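Q&A log
Question type: sequence-to-structure
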Amino acid sequence: MGQIYAEIELINAHDKELMKKRTIDKDEIRSMRVLAMVDTGFIYMAINENIQQILQLPVVGKERSILANGQVVECDKVFPLEVRFENRTAHCSALVLPNDSEPLLGAIPMEEMDVLINPKRQELIVNPQHPHYAITSLRTIPRTYPAT
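Response status: OK
Response body:
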């Protein structure tokens, strides 16, 4: 299977909260559309420094990551980011990769949006079992555990 890309919208969710409080106007919410590589082997969302410069997401920490070339980098972790794909939305943190690295859409935002990869068409799709809204899977935890 080759590389799969999806056009997504990235929104500074902090700006949306400021708009709700009437601190900023709707047209001041920082957002942009990007083509992100869909990477199920990556947990988080990853943006690059150029995207961060536009969105100005609050930095909430640092995290070390290994790039595809084996290089270890320390990345800023930013939050809150809203990710939109078709009729789906996820709220997550993101790692800020160096320079103009490729944005990555990882497993956590994909799971939250209830999207799948269609391997035949090599594209990201809304889960056809839930076309109108996302459904997340929850596993119940037994109230008591069997004696060992």
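Response note: Residues 32 and 67 are 24 Å apart (CA to CA).
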